[in-house]
Amino acid sequence: MSVAAAHSGGIADHIHPEPQGFVRRYVFSIDHKIIGIQYLITGFVFMMLAGLLAETIRTQLLNASGGFVSPDTYNEVYSVHGSAMVWLVIIPIATGGFGNLVFPLMIGARDVAFPWLNMLSFWIFPVSGLMLFSSFLMGAPAAGWTEYPPVSLQGAPGTTMWCAAIFLVGVSSTLTGINFLVTILKMRAPGMTFTRMPLFVWGQFATAPLLMIATTALAAALAALFMERVFGVPFYDPTKGGSPVLWQHMFWFYSHPAVYIMILPLFGIISEVLPTFSRKPIFGYKLIAFSSMAIALLGFMVWAHHMFTSGLAPFLQVLFMVMTFTIAVPTGVKIFSWIATLWGGKIHYSTAMLFALGFLALFTFGGITGVFLAAVPTDLDLHGTYFVVGHFHYVLVGGSLMGVFAGMYYWFAKMSGRLLNETLGKVHFWLFFVGFNMTFLPMHWLGFMGMPRWVATYDPQFQFWNRFESVGSYIMTLGILCFFINVIYSIRAGKKAGPNPWNARTLEWQIPSPPNYYNFKHIPTVYGLPYDFSQPLPYTGLEDELTDSPPAQLTGAHH
Amino acid sequence: MVEQKAQATSLGRGFWIATAVMAVAAVAGAIYWVYAPIESWVPSIILTAHQVDVFFRFLAAVGTAIYVFVVGYIVYFTIVFGAKKTDPPDAIGVQIHDNHKLEFWWTFFPTLLVVIIAIVSYLIWAEIILKPASGVVVEAIGHQFNFTFRYPQINGEVTDEIHLPVNVPVTLNLTSSDVIHSFWVPAMRLKNDTIPGMVTAIKFTPYRTGRYPIICAQFCGTLHSTMNKQVLVVEDEASFNAWYHGMQLKNAHVSNALPSTSGTIALTGGDAAAGQALFSQKCSACHALGPFDQKIVGPGLRGVLHDPKHPTLVDGDPATPENAAKILQQGFTGPMGTMPNATTNGLSDKDIANVVAYLNSLK
Ligand SMILES: [Cu+2]
Ligand SMILES: [Cu+2]
């Protein structure tokens, strides 16, 4: 039986011998699991640095007159904070990190389609990250993470470094997108049809084309900005015949879909964590899967909602407004389905589950405030204010980052063989949750009342709430410290996890933690969705996975 | 497991009680937004600002109601369906995969809501955007790091304050002399970017007198956060007229005339720096700062008065400052198209002197 199953595995079926030596195994690794962990570690290191910048911002804003750092430094700090959080933290962790670590296991593959390309994708990432942070040595970019010309043309030399760094990390994203797309299309285990794929895989599947297509537009925009800054080629400078609005179109053609790059994989994580800890099938599997695809597609048609005040033709204002509204439908459907998944469950209050629930509450809030910004009449007031800052932190921190933590508490067991400490995890959750809301909720009314974003000093009438926010941000940071302590502690002394500590049903939990180099001794055959808790597991060919027998294929035969 | 199947079919009394509690909270939240004292947080001074507030209340009320239910059900389900200590470790929840009816309705209602929101926002959008230009015309020009303002009948620039008569329609033309800024008056619930090389207009009618802050809402350089010192003054017609004539008298010496297309222009004392600012506002849409061949609409103007390869201007006259001033004053139509005259370009004689000084400085 198992032999037959293994043979039907097709192209991914033969096992390569594991590379030997520390460097080949852990540094220049081609193993998707190791690469995933490399992405996560690098991403979290960049998160600490960008978080330090965030605290610099909040410390500056303790006083209406600023004073902690100079205005120039302040502008550099938030510009690098935003750029790093988007391109060096959330995107790499959500795609390169969790994507690599989990989805090949979930589809029963031995690796991604192009393991060497995968290694290249990863190694570009820390290099570009170091380039971005090194820009502080030469005068960092200071025009916000959006770097609108012409003011970015006046920026310090580090702005050019920024172009190069973001361009490179974009190349890494694009390669990852290609790799993941081909892997999902070509390397699913026998029987794993599209409608049997776990929802995390659907999340990555919807994200991959965004990485491939949208990132190219960013690359073009950055190349042009680079050429203008270095060689004076006038793409954006209006005094030389360029168009500053051109940048905005190209930048947002990427950066709106980028929001979905930063959220669809996390939707996937939530869709795994909720059923596992509710002991219930995900509600409305098909609708969740298809709505991800719908969001990805619509996501390409709304970019100019960031440009309602930029002299956009009136007709386009209406068009982009209406297109943006439509995204509320697939998003709402997802949220309702997740809530329905809770109904009638046997809910386990694990830390991963708490973060998933927190995600639902905070992401929904960000979604609702998004409607205010999509509607032209209210956006003409709120655009460029702290309302926007509040809105997108609800989406990207309350949403994406909460999802990242849910994923960490969930899959840490799979990557390390040990569980993260649950008590410390809950302390982390509550500090983070409370601190988060204190930091970002008041921003909405500050923005409405007249506080623009990207300011080193502000009107003294806003000082109370700014101080309140800063205190909140320190509490949030304490929560994140708990997380890092937890990781360091649990990696050595955490409880042993065993193969399946959560009684989860997707394929990655049916093999040892951490998995063997080759993932599966035999490629399993799949007979159904993974979410039917009342049924036996819908896989065959897994009988040997938890025994000591060597994999049948590991004979050194190698074509 | 059989027992759980049975449990699945009924929602139970607790569910309906919880739903009722949420409904009360949702209605209370929505009512709060209907009556929220928004205008005591930020006054509203134009008609469309009032409409934006109504729309804001509507969105906030609907959003609050939806949010109450979302969070309410999350919390309620999480508590009620928590696994008990007494449950066997392998206890599972109700095995339901979907419910097509429910899914239909929760796709249908958001769609309906989206359609309603789209229609309402379209109507208000039309009020704000689709207005004919009329009444008082003011120009606001963004600079690093202030705005300057111009009125057609007042020579030179008016700094620091825009004065407007109450209840008279206003057209505000926006542009910038350097980078992108954004002209925001929170009390108008309205902002628009000032973009170099581009003129955009906003139109509105103030109905309440008073002084209201103008804030730059687009990052524009080191001191962007200080770009909030200027004021929009709305006053009754008499005070406005008094201010306006005062400014006209005060600025009379700034330049002798309004844009005109005849008469000689005194070029001495032209200010190249002021000319540069004018150039990026008024000329850069058609002229590059590159060599003659770098054409946008008209020719590139770098070294236009100093280029040995082009000793004459497009009209055949020698490339001297005086002849350049003549082209600027009277305009010229040639093979490349039309160079607008001073009236169209909105250039006073003084402006022409400044721009020519600037062109002369380009070598
Ligand atoms: Cu967007
Ligand atoms: Cu500014």
Question: Explain this structure to me?
Answer:
The complex is a heterodimer of chains A (559) and B (363). Chain A is an all-alpha fold. Chain A contains 17 helices and two strands. Chain A has a two-stranded antiparallel sheet with strand order 1-2. The longest helix of chain B is centred in the first third of the chain and has 34 residues, at 47-80. With 363 residues, chain B is α+β, with helices and mostly antiparallel strands. Chain B has three domains: 15-82 and 97-129; 136-250, Immunoglobulin-like (Sandwich); 272-361, Sandwich (Immunoglobulin-like), CATH 2.60.40. In chain B, helix 2 runs antiparallel to helix 4 (47-80), helix 4 (47-80) packs antiparallel against helix 5 and helix 8 packs across helix 10 (349-361). Chain B is elongated. At the A-B interface, helix 4, helix 10, helix 11, helix 12 and helix 13 of A face helix 1, helix 4, helix 5, strand 7 and strand 9 of B. Bound molecules: copper (II) ion (2 copies). One copper (II) ion binds at residues 181, 216, 218-220, 224, 227 of chain B. One copper (II) ion binds next to helix 8 of chain A.
Topology of helices and strands:
The complex is a heterodimer of chains A (559) and B (363).
Chain A lengths: L1 H6 L14 H6 L4 H29 L10 H36 L8 H20 L23 H29 L12 H33 L12 H18 L2 H15 L6 H14 L15 H13 L1 H15 L8 H24 L1 H7 L3 H31 L5 H28 L13 H31 L31 E2 L12 E2 L19
Antiparallel strand pairs in A: 1-2
Helix pairs in contact in A: 3-4, 3-5, 3-17, 4-5, 4-6, 4-7, 4-15, 5-6, 6-7, 7-8, 7-9, 7-10, 9-13, 9-15, 10-12, 12-13, 13-15, 13-16, 15-16, 16-17
Chain B lengths: L1 H8 L2 H24 L2 H4 L5 H34 L19 H30 L6 E8 L2 E5 L7 E2 L1 E5 L4 E7 L4 E5 L4 E5 L5 E5 L5 E7 L13 E6 L1 H14 L21 H11 L38 H10 L1 E3 L2 E3 L2 H4 L3 H13 L2
Parallel strand pairs in B: 1-5, 4-10
Antiparallel strand pairs in B: 1-2, 2-3, 5-8, 6-7, 6-9, 9-10, 11-12
Helix pairs in contact in B: 2-4, 4-5, 7-10, 8-10
The structure holds copper (II) ion (2 copies).
One copper (II) ion (CU) binds next to α8 of chain A.
